């Protein structure tokens, strides 16, 4: 019971970050589930997909009410992501847990660097969407979703702004819709090969939904530059924590 209650503040924090910037909170779910709540790696990736998917859906619906979701783009972006998520899930089951965690930590560091390098300027008018690039970005996002049990928002938002050409506010809301779709596919694939602690996952998810709804409201008013720096800092902290735990296990 104490583990379940401990999931509430983490769920709120992760949902808040996910709803605010369209990504980031989701990739913190796996380290929390593994190192704080004591879940095995494979079971944690399955639970994180449920948490991320439902939380992102709640955020997308909230953003969509204010016209901040390009639903057509999300529907076109998601199929390649969903197909690649199945392949990523198969690879997740084939790799040893330690290799998954170390690779995950390196991915966090790369994501942090990418967030710090992104420009904060938003475009007044989006150019014509580049669907071939969007499809490729969708495939990469889906593969990461299946492999690491993350929603891929830190990949989706840059892909939607750079490859598809959406303004930042629209990209954040659309990212949540894409994350919900790809997480649902990956969750179904994970659930067929592994279980999860349902009560823990549902508690975490419920708190995440509340945080995501609040985050979508904050995201419309917050300064983008400050949010990205905070996001990058959280990624670095999580990566160092994962690497530190992995190194300690070898000693």
Overall mean confidence score, pLDDT: 80
- The separation of the N and C termini measures 32 Å
Number of helices: 10
Assembly state of the chains shown:
single chain
Which stretches are low in confidence, meaning pLDDT under 50 for 5 or more residues running?
A: 120-127
Estimated helix fraction: over 70%
Count up the domains: 1
Main sheet specs: none
Radius of gyration: 16 Å
What order do the SSEs take from the amino end to the carboxyl end, as H and E? HHHHHHHHHH
Helix/strand-derived category reads: mainly alpha
Strand segment count: 0
Give structural notes.
The protein has one domain. The protein is 80% helix and 0% strand. The chain contains ten helices and no strands. The longest helix has 27 residues.
Layout: helices, strands, pairs:
Elements: H1 2-21, H2 29-36, H3 41-64, H4 71-94, H5 97-117, H6 131-148, H7 153-164, H8 168-191, H9 198-219, H10 224-250
Structure summarized in a few sentences:
With 251 residues, this protein is an all-alpha fold.
What attributes characterize this protein structure?
single chain, 251 residues, mainly alpha, globular
